[in-house]
Task: structure prediction
Amino acid sequence: MGIGDIWNLIAMQPVINVLVVLTNVLFNNFGLAIIALTLIVNGAMFPLTLKQIRASKAMQEMQPKIAELKKKYGKDKEKMAREQMKLYKESGVSPAGCLLPLLIQMPIWIALFQSIMRVLAVIPENLAGLSQYLYSWPVVYSALPLSNDFLWLNLSSGDIFLALLVGASMWVQQKMVMTPAVDPSQKTQSSLMLWILPIMFAWLTLSFPSGLALFWVTSNLFRIGLQYWIGGWGGLVKSSPKRDTGRDKKYKKRIAEVEEAPEGGADIVPSSAREEDLSYEESGDKRSDRGGGYPKSPRDTKPKSRRGGGHRRKRG
Amino acid sequence: MRIGNKALPVGKISLLIVLLLVGLLAVGCTGIRGSPEGGSGATIVDETIFLAPSLKQAGGFGCSAPAVEGKLVAVNAETGVQRWEVPLGGAVSSGGFGCSQTTIPVAVYGSPTLYGDLVYVAGYNGKIYALNAESGALRWVYPREGNMDSIVGGIVIALDKLYFGCADGNVYALDAATGDMLWEFATEDKIWSTPAYDLGALYISSFDKKLYAISAADGTEKWQFEAGGAFASTPLVDNGTIYIGTLDRYFYAINAADGTVEWEFQAEKWFWTRAVAFEDTIYVGCFDNKVYGLNALNGEKIVEFDLESPVRSWPVLDEDRVFIATEAGEIYTIDAVNNQILLFADLAETIYAPLSLSEGVLYVYTQEQNLHAINAESGVRLWIQPIS
Result:
């Protein structure tokens, strides 16, 4: 069994058959099936996506500090790299937190993409080839071939409106996670990412069947919703940040601690209890008293044991 | 993330991953979607073979545009030397690096049909061409302007009328001499199959899961039969019964007079090809890699052969032998008298097109664009001619 056969067995076949069954369930509407499956897959990958968005956000919020390091150790690259890693370590942010979820999600997206293309099966060669991917479920055999009509769209050919929608939703999604860059080179890179990718995807979308564009738009909208839930409109509307969730606060506090620490930051001991105390002391906000009162100083507080297996650094 | 003392440039890696993803999506285009290749069976009349070759796919970034235009070719059946070829139109890529094309390439799936001094061919670009069989000169084209939806099936001609089904869901009847439209009949979905003509009736199947019996004279419906799945195969009419397989994995025998089911047989995968009949046995290939021999009277399975590859090409009958080809390029003969199977030839090339037989010679056109002539008795290869 070759790698292609394994890929077909574990990725393509399940997705293709689920797509066909969903179409059958959703009034023989392939467009609805694409939307539904995209949402299901997005939902299944929700924890990973959440992790990735949070890690990216935390990384971006560290950029000012990294820029400072660059200023300080710009010429000594080895030292710079060492300090950067130290900063990541101490703030509890891992670059792998951005990349790993993306790497894990990639095969799933590719399988979804390939399956949609296969199920569209416009030409005889593709429809005939589809038969080797089908399970022996009667519903699958009665549903095929699927109708490619959805709203005003022919899902097997490109559509300019949907292409624009792909580009626009991708731009919005990227803009939301973007924080103002301090470093000019980083600023250029961000601007390039912000414009080039949406334009590129919109262009590609025109060439691909609009069924695929429907998948991209749905996926982008899902992520926009998720990002709004996590951090509000973010870089899209600067003046209206949404309240951070507990996890976001944790990232931010850790970063703040590192930033406020003396050089090297080795004597910083972040703890959830201390983080909370600091924030209330600094902001002057009130909160409902859950008993126990607040410690007078962060230094008086011993780290609390944490649930969920989160790692804790030792006192330096 | 760290390698030695160096921190990995996360931004650049993310960008790389995204670009890789875009690249993969683009590359996926060539592997899955592609353009229609076509490739008809050979039609042999008076020592001339008429054939529409398949379109070779060109590579390129994300786009598989056809490298050649569709055409009709006339070949000397004895020597394999080409007599003439006529281009059937042009295929123009839209430019850019996507997969879109401004016109549909002229792939041809249905075998050419000879009638009188004309040879007829139906193009995937939605046109019917009538050409002089001797010279290849164009006599008429339908429609004269513009294009219909794609035509995947072939043409049937009877009593000066030409019939074909179209992906717009309609069956059309044209005057074979002039190309004028006589009547049209609407079904509810795409038609990819070739109609079958018998005793003034036309039988045609559609993606709407129905088989229709239509009056060949005026296109009025006689009856319709609804199956559990779409039809992509062409019916066989034999002794007042229609035999046809569907995508719901069933093979049906239907009474040609009233459309009632005489029997049905279930396989494991789709039926795509047409069946052949020898006395009381129906032989039909299936996408489950098998060929079934069924009792024509009650549908009981007499014999089955596992050929280890799907059967898409139409089989052909030579007296009491059935020639049947797999997609993998193996050609088998089934002795219909005692149901013994023999490997006749292994071309090691992909076979989609119908097999053709004339004067004791089997003609096979492969997706590798080679036309093979094989002696039907001895299995000796007479010649191979690249037709591209």
In short: DSSP finds 13 helices and two strands in chain A. Chain A has one domain: 3-236. The mean pLDDT of chain A is 73. Residues 3-236 of chain A form one domain.
